[in-house]
Design a protein that fits this description.
The chain crosses the membrane at residues 214-239. Residues 55-180 form the TPM domain. InterPro entries: TPM_dom (IPR007621). Pfam families: TPM_phosphatase. The protein is an alpha/beta fold. 53% of the residues lie in helices and 9% in strands. The protein contains eight helices and four strands. It has helices spanning 2-32, 64-81, 99-110, 114-117, 146-156, 158-162, 167-182, 206-239; strands at residues 55-57, 84-90, 120-126, 131-136. Strands 1-2-3-4 form a four-stranded mixed β-sheet, with helices on both faces. β1 (55-57), α2 (64-81) and β2 (84-90) form a beta-alpha-beta unit. α1 (2-32) packs antiparallel against α8 (206-239) and α2 packs parallel to α7 (167-182). The longest helix is centred in the last third of the chain and has 34 residues, at 206-239. The two termini are 17 Å apart.
Length: 245
Amino acid sequence: MTHILQQVFRMKKLLIRLILPFLTIILAASLSSAPALASGVYQIPNLTAGDSTWVLDQGDVISRINEGTISSSLENLAKQTGKEVRFVTIHRLDYGETPESFGQALFEKWFPSKEAQANQILLVLDTVTNGTAIITGDEVKPLLTDTIANSVAEETLAAPLRDGNKYNQAFLDASDRLVAVLSGQPDPGPPQIVDTVQVEGTFKKAGETDKGNATAWVVGLLIAATIIPMATYYIYLAVQPSSEG
């Protein structure tokens, strides 16, 4: 009996040694799919008034073609009116940070004086929550009033995001409206919202499926490491000739 138990324990140790590398690979894959680290104002590159950077897409949600289109429109606006608009997307904010607090801090980092801030507009989007914020300088307020500015952030930019995370359309619409208003044209207003009935999908997202599969593999392998030695032991007993024979 002691000999049989020793064999079972040896088999269990062998199985654990074989399974551990697979567990390590699966856990590493799960960790690699974790969300990116949060971004703070201190991680954003420096920028000053007159800089030719108009779009800072750290959330990676705007296509290169549309980024070029938006940058061209905002650059022409700056040349014609002296008013500078910049779009910033962030994938994840620091804990306790909001788009408004982040935007205000970044605005003051880039444009530390009232004179530097005067003709600046900063539109911020957090792509995790789709939260938005807009910060404006004093000289743009006669055209871009606080009411219009908030409407740009909360309606023009946010409406396409609520309709399937259409980031490119959102920033193109926001750019067109800001350029029109800051150029002295009539405000085109926010997009008209069409009520639609949405049926919640029953399919998991790709990230959820990956994590679920990894967890299932880990649990399955751990169960196998426990059950297989026990089953082997009982099978071994069952096939042994009776000592009374």
